[in-house]
Amino acid sequence: MFKINAVKREQKGEKVRVDGLLPAVIYGAGGEADSVSLTFKEFNKVYQEAGDSTLIDLEVDGKAEGKVLVQDVQYDPVKDRVIHVDLKRIDMNKTLVAPVELIFIGESQAIKEAGGTLVRNFEMIDIECLPKDLVSHLDVDLSVLKTFDDAFRVSDLNLPAGVKFYEVDDDAIIVKAVPALTEEEIKAMESESTKDADLTKIESAEPAKEAKEGEEAAAEAGEEKKEETKKE
């Protein structure tokens, strides 16, 4: 079980960050959008363990506010630090759609013995279920890839009761082992890549401008969520 403590805020995100706090917005489940502040340390710890698909208990000003999911996390493009968070309220009686991480386990005989390469087409997959049935991850067993003809498909995933895939082809390949590239093939790819490169299009970075744009995007995200809630 995970829990996040929040405090209601009136200040804009930039002011909150100056004070060492993390601005966030809470919305969904028919409620109004609320602007709150989180602590960087607590959020980073919880998010690292819970990710995007684990229910989190939320408290605002010391009062229980039910369960939420981390809907969106925005980062400073220069410092790669979290600058804004969207938390979505969850109605425990309604089905939801959530991305679930795929964990690759086991060892492929084709890779181990034939020196092949793994090609992963999915790292996450969307599932639909009631909140109580939500899972944090699904396992992909690489041991089924014994030859280069084998593939692990969406239909091979073991889904718990009450959980189904959301808008994904059951026959889609999640991971497959392919023969390693020869030295000649690698050189040919490098040569083609160098030939296609247009150095005249390389521009200098503008860190300050990008950071400002990141903050503005975070502020706009909060306002958009408020407008969406009003329309509901």
Automatic annotation (TrEMBL):
Q: Which residues form the signal peptide?
A: none
> Which Gene Ontology cellular-component terms appear in the entry?
cytosolic large ribosomal subunit
Query: Which residues are in the Large ribosomal subunit protein bL25 L25 domain?
Result: 4-87
**GO annotation, biological process:** translation
Q: Which UniProt keywords apply?
A: Ribonucleoprotein, Ribosomal protein, RNA-binding, rRNA-binding
Which molecular function terms from Gene Ontology are attached? 5S rRNA binding; structural constituent of ribosome
Q: Does the keyword rRNA-binding apply?
A: yes
According to its UniProt entry, the function of this protein is described as:
This is one of the proteins that binds to the 5S RNA in the ribosome where it forms part of the central protuberance.
Q: Which NCBIfam families match?
A: bL25_bact_ctc
What name does this protein carry?
A: Large ribosomal subunit protein bL25
Q: Species name for this entry?
A: Candidatus Magasanikbacteria bacterium CG10_big_fil_rev_8_21_14_0_10_36_32
